[in-house]
Design brief:
This protein is α/β, with parallel strands linked by helices and about 450 residues long. It has 3 domains: about 200 residues, FAD/NAD(P)-binding domain (3-Layer(bba) Sandwich); about 55 residues, no CATH class; about 100 residues, no CATH class. It is about 35% helix and about 20% strand. The chain has 14 helices and 21 strands. The strands form 6 sheets. The chain has a 5-stranded parallel β-sheet with strand order 8-2-1-12-21, covered by helices on one side. It has a 5-stranded antiparallel β-sheet with strand order 16-17-18-15-19. α2 packs parallel to α14 and α8 packs across α13. It is globular. The protein binds flavin-adenine dinucleotide. Flavin-adenine dinucleotide binds next to α2, β15 and α14.
């Protein structure tokens, strides 16, 4: 027994998001490693972050299961843990399915002649209206811009012009946008997964540096703790790698995450891969608004003149980027999304300013009175230094797949391994993708370990 313990290698996992949790679960299966997860915040889940507002679970981060079907590991886990609590089956008790069931298998069928998503959409739009912009009714253009906004958010870019078309992302078959329902949520799922682990997560343990100058890596945390490890699995978001591994982005009072600095090719990969900025705003009304006030899921179409509204322009110009208001379950809560430069504005705005902006827009859109918005809830992903943004995006003119391959290559003979949503060529920007990367890196270690024992 004691010789077995001596043989165990020490693994530090940095980050308790789904990738870190998946890696630790996989490593524990084999009883070959001592595993500690170092998590900077006081909770697990990272970008899976469910709040509770008046007993309604509210997703501030990941919301959908993209490709809810047999091939999706997260769908399988949701189904398993739903059953484990006595609820039979995943739908409709756990997931709400969208109407869109079958996915295509990637974007490569999209016209490869276009460099970016906007050029493609614009060309298609022009084709539909015989190229005569003057004859195009204004609301059609408004619909087009709303659609562009919606796609920008789901793809995750500052603007459709910057988003590439022929990425390596693969849609899994199955419902493309299934949501958790009732008490179920991404937060519920992550808690179930954490419960399967021994007490190995050290919260409030932000890693300041990973020193790999010796054969044993030395990890130093902000709280003063230090750890030695044979292997380190790094799962911090790409936004953190961008800020903490590139000299040009380093704040004056911060040090590089890696000592020595990452090799040049890894730095190039980190610099090149896009990281989307998205803002999700949750509005709380003082009463039920859907049936009485007909505030059903709302698509906001901006006519050209609306964009020049003096009040909007003076007080909240970012509001013209708003385009959707969608009810959360059967509550008085509605969620809205923004992207691009509007994200920074929304994150800096006070609650009162956001309430004023939405109230103004709703009063403009509806002839009748809309109940009061009493509160605003959101997580500020862009300003949170543990994320610095939301998810990976395939940018035009960038070979995302090749850069991801470089990013995920282990360093120093598997002393440092890289997992997390930005390290999968096929499923970046998703929970299921992040989960698979954690398993991938844990398996890399278990396979090596098995060879030598
Ligand atoms: C607004 C939003 C909407 C989204 N919508 C969807 C969706 O609908 N469907 C979907 O599939 N995906 C969605 N995603 C993406 C999905 O949430 C992520 O791809 C996935 O959760 C990433 O998991 P991860 O483990 O790679 O990273 P994370 O969840 O980010 O985990 C990384 C962890 O590292 C920690 N950390 C950071 N720095 C340090 C440090 N120095 N030391 C220690 N710990 C550190 C962080 O606190 C965090 O807990 C969304 C994301 C956001 C933000």
């Amino acid at each position: 027994m004691s010789s077995r313990i001596e043989l165990k290698k020490k693994v530090i996992v940095v980050g308790a998001g789904i990738a870190g949790i998946a890696a630790a679960r996989e490593l524990y299966k084999h009883d070959l490693f001592d595993v500690v997860i170092l998590e900077a915040s006081n909770r697990a889940g990272g970008r899976m972050f469910t709040g509770n507002i008046d007993n309604t679970p509210v997703e501030f981060g990941a919301t959908f299961i993209h490709g809810a079907g047999e091939h999706n590991a997260i769908y399988q886990l949701a189904k398993y843990y739903g059953k484990a609590t006595g609820i039979d089956g995943i739908s409709p008790a756990i997931l709400k399915h969208s109407d869109d069931i079958e996915g295509t298998n990637n974007s490569s069928t999209w016209a490869s002649m276009y460099n970016d998503l906007y050029s493609y959409l614009d060309a298609e739009f022009t084709k539909c209206f015989s190229g005569n912009a003057l004859k195009t009714p204004p609301y059609v253009k408004s619909m087009f811009y709303t659609f562009v906004n919606w796609l920008t958010i789901s793809e995750g870019g500052d603007h459709c012009r910057g988003i590439g078309i022929n990425g390596s992302y693969r849609n899994l078959p199955g419902d493309r946008e299934a949501r958790f329902e009732n008490i179920y949520s991404y937060g519920y799922l992550i808690q179930k997964l954490v419960d399967t682990l021994p007490d190995c997560i050290h919260y409030n343990s932000e890693v300041l540096s990973i020193n790999t100058e010796n054969s044993s890596a030395l990890i130093t945390c902000k709280n003063g703790c230090q750890y030695e490890a044979d292997h380190v699995i790094v799962t911090v978001p790409l936004g953190v790698l961008k800020k903490r591994c590139l000299y040009e982005n380093l704040s004056p009072n911060k040090q590089l995450l890696f000592i020595p600095a990452l090799p040049a090719e890894k730095q190039i990969a980190i610099r090149s891969i896009g990281f989307a900025q998205v803002g999700k705003i949750v509005l709380q009304f003082d009463q039920e608004v859907t049936s009485k006030y007909k505030l059903i899921p709302l698509m906001i179409l901006w006519r050209p003149d609306d964009k020049h509204d003096p009040v909007i322009n003076k007080k909240f110009p970012w509001a013209t980027e708003l385009f959707l208001l969608e009810r959360i379950q059967n509550s008085n809560l509605y969620e809205s999304w923004v992207t691009g430069s509007a994200v920074a504005c929304v994150e800096q705005a006070s609650k009162e300013e956001i309430i004023e902006a939405f109230t103004y827009i709703l009063n403009k859109a509806f002839k009748h009175h809309i109940p009061n918005i009493v509160d605003v809830h959101m997580h500020k992903w862009q300003s949170d230094p543990l994320f610095n943004g939301c998810y990976t995006v395939h940018l035009a003119d960038v070979n995302t797949s090749a850069n991801i391959t470089k990013l995920r290559e282990p360093l120093n003979n598997n002393q440092v391994l890289f997992a997390g949503e930005a390290t999968t060529e096929e499923y970046y920007s998703t929970v299921h993708g992040a989960y698979l990367t954690g398993i991938r890196e844990a398996k890399r270690l278990t396979e090596i370990k098995k060879l030598f024992t």
